[in-house]
Amino acid sequence: MAIAKAERLMNLALCLMNTRRPLSKKELRESVEAYREAWQQGSEDAFNRMFERDKDDLRELGLIIDVDENALDGEIGYLARRDRNRLPEIALDAEEAAALALAARVWQQAKMSGAASGALQKLRAAGVPFAEDREHGALEPRIPGREAAFEPLLTAARDRRPVTFDYRKAGAATAEPRSVEPWALECWRGHWYLAGYDRDRGSARVFRLSRITGKVRSRAGAFTGEVPEHVDVRAVVARFAGEGATAVARVRVRSGAAYPLRQRALGTRPAGAGWDELDVPYGNGLGADLAEYGPDVIVIGPEDLRADVIDRLRAVAGLAEVVSQ
């Protein structure tokens, strides 16, 4: 079945690229044997569904298909112009080719891995030489994208489509609906973050993907906010996480727990009885971050941070009690 589909896609691509005028569905049906058989053995609807799927697959592979709605006496015509589907001459030196090959192997999830492999195949077809994988060493980077929201948000950011989702803020008991124009995603300290324009709040916001609940839904329409030329997601997240803050918090951490917090610590010392004491940069949002560690973290000071964390934990405990009743 895979070979038959590949052959059908190839035949359709050849038909669309080797014509000087747009071809109607009827002409394509007569030119591609698989379409003709589907129409004869099934119905017009069966052929139409097959053609639409194949057309979308070719576009996903990078083929630019023009649509002329008045090409043939009012019938829709299709054409893949060669000048729009020809790769320009690509010249990469050995270091640039090695960097691209390494980047293509970063992704772990199947969908991104397939897209990256396909990109390398296209570059190889264009004459770009790539060294064997083993030449890049035994250690290679890996970027996980385990959150269900990752792929729909990545696609929406690429296509400039607004989205809606339910989001639970740090320390909040329940999730709230958010309407966002996604700009960019970035992985920082093992977590994925989305930067975008929050329509409800009328300003830029950063969202941690692990706090998105339910499905991400795309919405029609164009962006209403201005998209910046460069989005420094990491800088925004760091500012809210206390990076670069002048104050320092003293936090007691259970041994073997809270490794992300330990990485941010300015100093660490044993506190006895299975606990360590950390000096952590103190800035806006640190209380919400500490509350997520639950009983593995105890705030020693300053007092306002300690009170903030205690209030957040009491709110969560109160909600749990209500739910249990």
Question: How would you describe this protein?
Answer:
This protein is α+β, with helices and mostly antiparallel strands. It has eleven helices and eleven strands. The protein has a five-stranded antiparallel β-sheet. Strand 5 and strand 6 form a beta hairpin. Helix 1 crosses helix 4 and helix 5 runs antiparallel to helix 6. The chain is elongated and about 80 Å long. The N and C termini lie far apart (55 Å).
Order of helices and strands: HHHHEEHHHEEEEEHEHEEHEH
Helical percentage? 25-40%
Largest sheet: 5 strands, antiparallel
How large is the radius of gyration?
27 Å
- Please tally the β strands and state the result: 11
Question: What's a quick, concise take on this entry?
Answer:
The protein is α+β, with helices and mostly antiparallel strands and 325 residues long. It has 11 helices and 11 strands.
Protein topology:
Layout: H1 2-17, H2 25-31, H3 33-41, H4 44-60, E1 66-72, E2 75-79, H5 94-104, H6 110-125, H7 150-159, E3 163-167, E4 176-188, E5 191-198, E6 203-208, E7 212-218, H8 233-241, E8 247-254, H9 259-264, E9 267-272, E10 275-282, H10 286-291, E11 297-301, H11 303-324
Helix pairs in contact: 1-4, 2-3, 3-4, 5-6
Comma- or semicolon-separated keywords:
4-stranded antiparallel sheet, 325 residues, single chain, 11 helices, 5-stranded antiparallel sheet, alpha+beta, 11 strands
